[in-house]
Each structure stands twice: as structure tokens, then as C-alpha cells.
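S2.1 Query sequence (6-phosphogluconate dehydrogenase)
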Amino acid sequence: MKSDHIENINKTVSQGTEKVGSHLSVTVIGLGPMGKAIVSAFLDKGYGVTVWNRTLSKADDLMAKGAMKASTVSEAITSNDLIILSLTDYRAMYAIFEPISEQLTGKVIVNLSSDTPEKVREASEWLGERNAVQLTGGVLASPPGIGKKESVTLYSGPRKTFDDYQNILEALTSARYKGEDPGLAMLYYQLQIDVFWTAMVSYLHAVAVARANGITAEQLLPYVSDILSTMPQLLEFYAPRIDDGTHTGDVENLSMGLASVEHVVQTSNEAGIDTSLPAAVLDVLKRGVARGRAGDSFSSLIDMF
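Output C-alpha cells follow.
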């Protein structure tokens, strides 16, 4: 019975795909900075766009560019078969769709909102029960990057649905398909965001220490850029070692790293800057050394998490 249900959903959505492909139109729900950038990119590529936001006035500037403003969610949903969501999280999707869930039949929901992989899977199942299909998207770009081919969005969900809509989605960014699991794109997205925010906060901490010593952010910038330029090579070096469990300290070791981070903490303290961020890094290294890994590589810290 379940396989028959899924087949029926796919048939319904396939019919919708032909309609959207011929009309070259989409609906975008959520008009924050990212949502507005998405609408503008579609309009720039010649697509018809229907928009809806709880605060309807947010659509006014987009209407001047050619977007059609829906006065209700129902109107927005019935206008097109391809629905793009740009919301704070997936909980917002339920709040918007539950009152009109019977109108979701045959719709393709491309959810570009952020959440956890498991919540994404639950949403995909919920939509499937209402005869709609979800494509999960993780946008690896800020609003100014939307509409540029060098920007990337990761997608997961039914392969056929992705193939049917790839050309339309690439009006926004390059589209990379990660697999059938609806949570997979979100997992890859959150992994990259983990690296992004950790790096950005450490950058701000370094700038704070610099400013306390009379160095401006602009003066520091080329040196930060220099250290960041070494990261791809380091990651390429460590990735296979992490996968193989090879953590020999032939290049560096934890005792060296521990001393280095201690100096960062001390430098921050001397500058009167909060040390909680580098101290957290120091704690991870201390725990690694306490487990007898002082002579092992930095990569051995993978076992601390």
C-alpha cells in the first residue's frame, strides 16, 4: 500500500511538473532578505513569480519588479505547482500549510529553510501524506550570492523531481544533488555551517584582540587571509588520515598544539579580551593529552567529540 501511495504522489507531481515547466512560473513564500533575493533572481531570469509573506507590505518593492502578490496562502499555493519556501525553520512551514493542507496535492515544495536533518525528514513525510513532494535545499550563499553560478545550493529528495526542476532551480545558484534521503542535503549544509560560524566567530575574536593592541580589522585582514589560504591544503592532508585512523605525530603533535593555544589564551587575557572561545579549544586539546595522545597528531582530537 505504501509503495502504491508513493507512486500516486509521483504521478500527480509529474503532471504538475509539465504545467510548471511550460508556464515558467513559481511561488515564493517568505520574503526576508534571502526570500527577496530568490524572487529577484527568478524575475531577472524571466520567470513569473507569485509571492506571499505574513507581512504583505514586504512584497511591494518586488511587485514593482514584476512579481505578483498573493493576498492569502491559498492563493499563493494554487498559483503554481512549484513552491519555494524561504523561512526561519521548518516549524514555520507547518504554521503556514496546515490550514490549507488539502491544497498541497500535486505540489513540489522546495524548502530552502534551515533546520535539522531529522526535522527535514519528518516534514518530507508530512508532505507526502498530503500528496506533495519535498526537495530539501541547503543554500551555501548569502543573499548577494543568489543569482550567481559560483554560488551553490545542495539538494536532496526524489531524483526525478530534482531532474525535472533543476533548470529552474539553477536560476538561483548552481544545484548539486546529494541523494534521495531528504535529510542529506540539510546534513551537508549544517556540517558546512558548523565550520563557517566557528571560523567567523574565531575571526571576530582575533579582531577584538587586534583592536585592543591598536591594530584595525583592515590592517589584520591580509594576515587572516594568508592563514585561511593554507586551510585547503591542511584539510586535504588530514581528511584521509582521519578516515584511516592514522594519527601519528610525524608532522605535528598535540603537545605542540596545546602550547600554541595556551599562548593564544594568554595573549587574549593580556589584551583584556574574553578568553572563553580559545579556552574552549584549549580544553579539547587538554582532554586529548589527558587521554595519552600528547605525541599524536591534531587529527586524533576527532575522538574527543
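The chain is about 55% helix and 15% strand. The CA atoms of residues 212 and 272 lie 8 Å apart.
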